[in-house]
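batch_manifest entry 22 of 60
target: DUF2065 domain-containing protein
source organism: Candidatus Thiomargarita nelsonii
requested by: lab member K.T.
priority: normal
notes from requester: please return tokens only, no post-processing; we will run our own comparison against the previous entry in this batch. if the run fails, retry once and flag.
--- input ---
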Amino acid sequence: MWEELGIAFALLLVIEGIMPFLNPSGWRKTLRTVSEMDDKDLRIIGFLSMAIGVIVLYIIH
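--- output ---
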């Protein structure tokens, strides 16, 4: 299990690093926009992201 968790973490880092590598100014603009959002909107986005992730994992597994 620890090996799969390490692989998942490594893939997360790779995926998270794609946008700042390819488009640093766009990434900075996106972060600025996100930092100005309300907490409620961020919670909704976070929940939807988690729900989609769970659904994808369920479908794959």
